[in-house]
Write a structure and sequence with these properties.
Layout (H helix, E strand, L loop, with lengths): L1 E5 L12 E4 L4 H17 L3 E7 L18 H21 L6 E7 L2 H8 L5 E5 L5 H7 L2 H8 L4 E4 L3
Parallel strand pairs: 1-4, 2-3, 2-5, 3-4, 5-6
Helix pairs in contact: 3-5
Length: 158
């Protein structure tokens, strides 16, 4: 298992021929991760687990106290640690799969689309929005389907 955190807007593609999966901490993301790990087992492919974040969505770093302003590096590390903590048990249940983690301070769709360059497949969860709500709000999965550099699998929630 390897880790990689990239601050700001630099988004590098995942390892060649890996299965990239987005994970935002939701149950739908867990379902997408399980699907990606199952596919990776069948295809003998590595998995790259991606989490996009912003200052508003980042967890508080260890040792944070009221009034303390965390650095971007501290926030990135906290996001990375939370991602690993929330996914480690599921990842461990697929011991044949080589998994790596990447966190990006950027929008979710942009991070996943850029990370998809060179990937075998991108797996994303769906919140199940439909009809008018999806047209008004847009969705990460819709943007990925339209713009990713590889095939995209959208999984239905848990």
């Amino acid at each position: 298992m390897t880790t990689d955190s990239a601050p700001d807007l630099t988004v590098e593609p995942a390892a060649a021929h890996s299965i990239v999966v987005g994970h935002d901490g939701s149950k739908g993301a867990d379902a997408a991760l399980r699907c990606a790990l199952e596919l990776a087992t069948d295809l003998a492919a590595p998995v790259t687990i991606v989490r996009a974040w912003s200052i508003a969505t980042a967890p508080r770093p260890t040792g944070w106290t009221f009034g303390y302003v965390s650095s971007s590096d501290e926030l990135s590390e906290a996001v990375h640690d939370e991602l690993v903590a929330k996914t480690k048990d599921l990842v461990a249940s697929f011991p044949a799969v080589q998994a790596s983690y990447r966190t990006y301070q950027s929008g979710a769709a942009r991070s996943l689309i850029e990370a998809s360059r060179g990937a075998r497949m991108l797996v994303v969860g769906s919140r199940g929005l439909g009809g008018f709500a999806e047209m008004v709000l847009g969705s990460v999965s819709d943007q990925c389907v339209r713009h990713a550099a590889c095939p995209v699998l959208v999984t239905k929630g848990p």
